[in-house]
Amino acid sequence: MSAQIADLGPGDAVFIPSMWWHHIEALSPFNTLVNYWWSSSPKHVPSPMSSLYHAIWSIRDRPEAEKEAWRQVFEYYVFGPSSRAGEHLPEQARGLLGPIDENRARQIRAMLLNSLNR
Questions:
Q1: What is the pLDDT of residues 40-66, one digit of tens each?
Q2: Residue 37's pLDDT is what?
Q3: Which of 4, 20, 101, 118 has a CA 20 to 30 Å removed from the CA of 109?
Q4: Which among 33, 30, 41 is positioned nearest to 16, based on CA atoms?
Q5: Which is nearest to 99 in space by CA: 116, 86, 80?
Q6: Nearest to 108 by CA among 92, 96, 97, 116
Q7: What are the pLDDT digits (tens) for 62-116?
Q8: CB 100 within 8 A of CB 108
Q9: CA pair distance 11, 52, nearest whole angstrom
């Protein structure tokens, strides 16, 4: 991977895809930067940053063997194919392993809030 440089002039714009690291440097005394973040995910799907913060808090400082076990759990349930983890269960019994719609998202949010507010 290598860096790319784009020198923009007045009225120019640049599209930076999601998850691309970037650095902006102003080259004159007066500059305006408009940053707009959008997602193609449905509105009931929250930002992954919440998961990152929670994982840093709850997993990062655990012993290495535990962290490796959690890495495997995440690989299976989060990063693997979305249908794999619950495919052996009847559709009505999949719970969190089934598709996440607005109703299921509300249930998950309530469960997380309850666990965080202890």
A1: 889 898 989 999 999 999 999 999 999
A2: 80
A3: 20
A4: 33
A5: 86
A6: 96
A7: 999 999 999 999 999 999 998 888 899 998 899 889 889 999 999 999 999 999 9
A8: yes
A9: 35
Tokens representing 42 are 């449905």
Question: How many residues are there in the chain?
Answer: 118
The residue written with tokens 């490796």 in the block is 68
Type of residue found at 69: A
pLDDT value, residue 107: 93
Instruction: Label residue 20 left, alpha or beta by phi (over 0 means left) and psi (-120 to 50 means alpha).
Output: beta
* Cα separations in angstroms, 104 against 8, 97, 107: 44, 10, 5
Across 16-25, average pLDDT: 86
Distance between CA atoms of residues 108 and 98, nearest Å: 12
> In whole angstroms, what is the distance from residue 45 CA to residue 100 CA?
8
